[in-house]
Amino acid sequence: MITTAKRLDTVEEYYFSSKLREVRQLQSEGKPIINMGIGSPDLSPSKAVIEAVAAAILDENGHGYQSYQGLPELRKGMADFYQNQFGVALNPNNEILPLMGSKEGIMHISLAFLNEGDHVLIPNPGYPTYTSVTNLVGAVPVYYDLKEANAWEPDFEALEKLELKKVKIMWLGYPHMPTGARGSLALFEKLVAFAKKHNILLVNDNPYSFVLNDNPMSLLQIEGAKEVALELNSLSKTFNMAGWRVGMVLGNPEIIDAVLKVKSNMDSGMFYGIQKGAVAALNCDKSWFEDQNKIYRRRRELTEKLAEKLGCEVYKEGVGLFVWAKLPDGIESSEKFIDEILYEKHIFITPGTIFGSNGEGYIRFSLCVKEEKVQEAIDRF
């Protein structure tokens, strides 16, 4: 028998990978499943993006290996985007590294900075990949609580009581996934000061800034943040390009160079046509965001009605691509709750527990569902 590496003992298959198999099986049996679980945008990129890719495919120079650092015009587009949207100045030559989706950046950053036994601060609830990647590289997850009573923000008194000498990286993400908590520049200032005090690399995962959010923010807006922080961002949600796999990591040249050392050994560059499409996306004007949010706003209103139909209490302050809702009193298991709805009403909703123990008692609805389908889900009750 060929045995697997011991590191696989530290992780399980990604929840959506296994659960969606179950959902597809129900669909194959003829069940009319409405999938409100996963945040994969069902809307299309702009016409300009599609045209840019179509033109690039005919470019005879566009089919070979590409630079590990991406096209210069892509890095410039990312720099201009951050300047225009956040007022953050970045050098496109050495402070920006395009990624094949920001998810791969989590692995690259971890490989670049974590040794076996290093500790990593991970939000609870939070994106499950932070934990799985930490385990895969042999580091130790240390969870910090986010709770509704504290607006889903860290308790700094509790953070200071943790054993911090071994902590190398702290993951955060605002707007927060899964709750939609906005965060604030005041919070970012506290986090940067905390990271400097304890010599921790702070990484903000920031893909939801422009969805239903009238005040987009970046961690890099904070003075001195580049000294201790990276930011991950993505075109997946903002520009409906999830399957294209285009993201970026931003920060000071020394930190970016360390990430590049890993990345350059992991892939051979992003397809030329996708990069040209990304450049076009980053040049979209204000009307793009306004039109997208009109759609998401109508979907959110309907989804909130569905949540309330289930007796749930919606977190009204949330922004981003999801609706976070508290289950009625007396419900002991969010996973059992969503499974009953899946098998009885054929609607798939995400249980809060997949994001951590503080997600128990909550469920998450995706807004990547057309209005008529959300209304159909309501009608099933």
UniProtKB/TrEMBL annotation:
Limits of the Aminotransferase class I/classII large domain: 32-381
Coiled coil: none
Gene Ontology molecular functions: pyridoxal phosphate binding; transaminase activity
Gene3D superfamilies: Aspartate Aminotransferase, domain 1, Type I PLP-dependent aspartate aminotransferase-like (Major domain)
Keywords (A to Z) from UniProt: Aminotransferase, Transferase
InterPro entries found in the cross-reference section: Aminotransferase_I/II_large, LL-DAP_aminotransferase, NHTrfase_class1_PyrdxlP-BS, PyrdxlP-dep_Trfase, PyrdxlP-dep_Trfase_major, PyrdxlP-dep_Trfase_small
EC number of this enzyme: 2.6.1.-
Cofactor(s) listed: pyridoxal 5'-phosphate
Family: Belongs to the class-I pyridoxal-phosphate-dependent aminotransferase family.
Name the UniProt record assigns to this protein: Aminotransferase
Source taxonomy: Bacteria, Pseudomonadati, Bacteroidota, Flavobacteriia, Flavobacteriales
